[in-house]
Design goal:
Number of strands: 6
CATH architecture of the domain at 10-220: Up-down Bundle
Strand order of the largest sheet: 1-6
Order of helices and strands: HHHHHHHHEHEEHHHEEHHEH
CATH superfamily of the domain at 10-220: Rhomboid-like
Subcellular location: Endoplasmic reticulum membrane; Mitochondrion membrane
Helix content: 55-70%
Largest sheet: 2 strands, antiparallel
Number of helices: 15
Shape: globular
Protein name: Rhomboid-related protein 4
Keywords: Apoptosis, Differentiation, Endoplasmic reticulum, Hydrolase, Membrane, Mitochondrion, Protease, Serine protease, Spermatogenesis, Transmembrane, Transmembrane helix
Membrane topology: Multi-pass membrane protein
Catalytic activity: Cleaves type-1 transmembrane domains using a catalytic dyad composed of serine and histidine that are contributed by different transmembrane domains
CATH topology of the domain at 10-220: Rhomboid-like fold
CATH class of the domain at 10-220: Mainly Alpha
Length: about 325
């Protein structure tokens, strides 16, 4: 297996710097494992992007179902990886400490598969309703669909406060929809259907039957496995305090001191961190050939042309 790029991966370096700044010991185990797995597959992809991306044509019509597993773990470039994993770091710390590591791992696996299934359904429906076969060939990679689902969960558990979307304060309960639109104004090549699929999966968990179905399938442990201590609340300016709570509605559980993540994020919210990284990304991309967008369609001829260009650039 070869690395995706031989150049300097500024996004990867920035991600690793942020992880070590937070401190590995401060990152819950499932979140840390998810970060490590995505970085590993970026550096050592199992297959090229064209063979791991998810589309109706490749997955459903050609029965290449392994793409449901490969697509979330592969990224188009280092900045795609950085944006997704920086968001995963933020959401993972919040949600894993609230839900417990085993249930959070169960959520990650379920959301990864289900987001891909919903994405295929959306693209198939668009192709049928618009009579446009190109939707069947739209091929998407990346963890962002899962992240949109996790964002729905995070906003569900912390409904108060505002998120900063392109400089505008947006109530948390609407932040997912605002971010869905904003991302596609900033980067039109991203997979709208993939991100929408994540939101729909998150809503299926918070307002639909998915959580109960998962509990019945798991059987051996409930969803309220917890980190004892405080219930943390975040708003657009980062950590904003906590309130005491008691698991199972009764006292007697030990409490741990709340962690001030401002020390690790310089007081920036997730959206503000990503906005700052986006500026760096745009500057970096202006100094090197642009990668394929995160939701993209490449014909075999285009893929061969890109490989020839990469070989030429590396010489």
């Amino acid at each position: 297996m070869q690395r995706r790029s031989r150049g300097i991966n500024a996004g990867l370096i920035l991600l690793l710097s942020q992880i070590f700044h937070v401190g590995i010991n401060n990152i819950p185990p499932v979140t840390l494992a998810t970060l490590a797995l995505n970085v590993w597959f970026f550096l050592n992809p199992l297959k090229p992007l064209y063979e791991s991306c998810l589309s109706v044509e490749k997955c459903y019509q050609q029965k290449d179902w392994q793409r449901l597993l490969l697509s979330p773990l592969h990224h188009a470039d280092d900045w795609h990886l950085y944006f997704n994993m920086a968001s995963m770091l933020w959401k993972g710390i919040n949600l894993e400490r609230r839900l417990g590591s085993r249930w959070f791992a169960y959520i990650i696996v379920t959301f990864s598969l289900l987001t891909g299934v919903v994405y295929l359904f959306l693209e198939f429906a668009l192709a049928e309703f618009t009579d446009e076969p190109g939707f069947r060939r739209n091929c998407a990679v990346g963890f962002s669909g899962v992240l949109f689902a996790l964002k729905v969960l995070n906003n569900h558990y912390c409904p108060g406060g505002f998120a900063n979307i392109l400089g505008f304060p947006v109530p948390n309960r609407f932040a997912c929809w605002a971010e869905l639109v904003a991302i596609h104004f900033i980067s039109p090549g991203t997979s709208f259907a993939g991100h929408l699929a994540g939101i729909l999966v998150g809503l299926m968990y918070t307002h639909g039957p998915l959580k109960k179905i998962m509990e019945k399938c798991a059987g051996i442990f409930p969803s309220n496995i917890h980190y004892p201590g405080q219930q943390h609340h975040f708003n657009s300016s980062g950590y904003s305090g906590y309130q005491d709570y008691y698991p199972y509605g009764r006292p007697g559980y030990p409490e741990e001191a709340p962690m001030n993540y401002n020390a690790y994020t310089a007081g920036l919210s997730e959206e503000e961190q990503l906005e700052r990284a986006l500026r760096a990304s745009l500057w970096d991309r202006g100094n090197r050939p642009s990668p394929p967008p995160y939701g993209f369609h490449l014909s075999p001829e285009e893929e061969m042309r890109r490989k020839r260009l990469h070989r030429f650039d590396s010489q």
